[in-house]
Specification:
The protein has helices spanning 4-9, 22-27, 54-66, 86-105, 111-115; strands at 41-44, 71-74. A two-stranded parallel sheet has the order 1-2. The protein folds into two domains: 1-36, no CATH class; 39-133, no CATH class. It is mainly alpha-helical. β1, α3 (54-66) and β2 (71-74) form a beta-alpha-beta unit.
Length: 133
């Protein structure tokens, strides 16, 4: 699905093509300023999101990781822009709370933030337990 109309005329409001307004496109892309990001970032980007292309979330996440920035990517398989399944919404809220508790209140880092969640554990072991400081 082409997103040119969105970028040129609606939500992004760039006003023209990348060939007409190259700098506007570059200035609107977070990819080119990833090195300036210093805030820990928790991204939820689902693989069936029709509002934001999946690859954009992956590029953002991988770029931050390449720069050793503290960043995490949550993907609820088969979910659209916002998870509709109750179990996914509950899971996201727990992880969001743990993320903020760690960075804003000094709570221990949960296992999923320290070690990730192996694909084999998805849906079985959520790795939500807190690790000792």
């Amino acid at each position: 699905l082409s997103r040119q109309f969105q970028y040129e005329h609606t939500q992004s409001r760039i006003g023209g093509t990348p060939w007409d307004f190259t700098m506007r496109y570059l200035e609107n892309s977070p990819i080119f300023v990833l090195d300036k990001i210093n805030t820990p970032i928790l991204i939820m980007h689902n693989d069936k999101d029709s509002a934001v292309p999946w690859y954009q979330g992956i590029e953002f996440f991988v770029g931050l990781r390449r720069l050793d920035k503290p960043t995490w990517l949550l993907n609820y398989q088969g979910a659209v822009h916002w998870p509709r399944k109750l179990q996914n919404r509950v899971d996201f809220n727990i992880r969001l709370q743990q993320f903020f508790d760690h960075y804003l209140k000094g709570a221990p880092m949960p296992d999923w933030m320290q070690n990730g969640v192996p694909a084999i554990d998805v849906g079985i072991n959520q790795h939500l337990e807190l690790l000792d400081k």
